[in-house]
Amino acid sequence: MGCCTGRCTLIFLCTLQLLSALERQIFDFLGFQWAPILGNFLHIIVVILGLFGTIQFRPRYIVVYTVWTALWVTWNVFIICFYLEVGGLSKDTDLMTFNISVHRSWWREHGPGCVRRVLPPSAHGMMDDYTYVSVTGCVIDFQYLEVIHSAIQILLSLIGFVYACYVISVFMEEEDSFDFIGGLDTHSYHQSPQDHVELKPVKPVEINNEH
Questions:
Q1: What is the mean pLDDT of the chain?
Q2: What residue intervals traverse the membrane (predicted)?
Q3: Kind and range of the H or E run holding 127
Q4: How many CB atoms lie within 10 A of CB 76?
Q5: For 36, phi and psi rounded to 5 degrees?
C-alpha cells in the first residue's frame, strides 16, 4: 500500500510533535520542572510508537497514540490553567517540581529581552532563592511563553487525533477487504476439478457363459 494522504499527514504530524516535545523537554530540564519532564518523556515514547505504527501498518499502536493524545491535551490544559492561575492555582508554587525545589520555569529569567540581575546578599538572606533575583525588560512574560508552548501541543494533538482515527479506519477497511478476497481465493484453491464432475450411475455388465 502506498503512502495515502492521511497516513503521510499523520507521519508528518508525529514528526512535528517529536521535535516540539524535544524542544520543550530541553527547557524543562534547564528549569528543573520535574512534572513536565516526566510528561514529555512519556509523550515522546508514545509518539514514537504511533509513528512506528503508522509506518508499519500497526493499527493497535495508533490506537495507543490516539488515547494518549486525549490525555496529553488534558495535561496541557492543566498547565495553561496553572500558569494563568485559573481556579485557585498559583504559578509561584512548587507544584511543577514536585515540591522538592524552588526552581521555576526557565523562561522566567531567560525570556526574550529579559535582563537578569542578582540582588546583593546583604539585602536578603540565602542566595539560592528566586526572590533574590531581579528580572526586567521581558518582552513576553514567562507564563505566556509556557501557555504558548502548551497551546501548540494541544493544537498538534487535536489534529493528530483526527488523522489517527482516519488512518485506523482506513487500515481496518483494507484488512477486511483483504480477508474477504483471501477467503474467496482459499475456497477456490481447495476446490478440486472433481467437484465439478457429474457422477452417473454405472449399469452392471452381464457376462454370458453360454458357448
A1: 82
A2: 34-55, 62-86, 151-171
A3: none
A4: 22
A5: -65, -35
Q: What would the grid cell of residue 120 be? A: 546583593
Question: Does the predicted TM-score (pTM) go above 0.85?
Answer: no
Q: What is the pLDDT of residue 127?
A: 47
Give the residues across from 135 on adjacent strands: 116
**Burial letters for 26-51: b for 16+ Cβ neighbours within 10 Å, e otherwise?**
ebbeebbbbbbbebbeebbebbbbbb
- The SS3 assignment for 118 reads strand
Q: How far apart are alpha carbons 37 and 31 in whole angstroms?
A: 10
C-beta of residue 64 within 8 angstroms of C-beta of residue 46 = yes
Distance, in Å, from the CA atom of 111 to the CA atom of 12, rounded to the nearest integer, reads 29
Return the residue matching grid coordinates 529581552.
113
- Contact 156/17 with Cβ under 8 angstroms? yes
- Residue 27: partners with Cβ closer than 8 Å, 6 or more residues away: 106, 107
**Mean pLDDT (whole number) for 61-66:** 96
Contact 82, 19 (CB under 8 A): no
Give the model's pLDDT for residue 40: 97
pLDDT greater at residue 210 or residue 51: 51
Question: In this structure, what DSSP letter does residue 172 have?
Answer: H
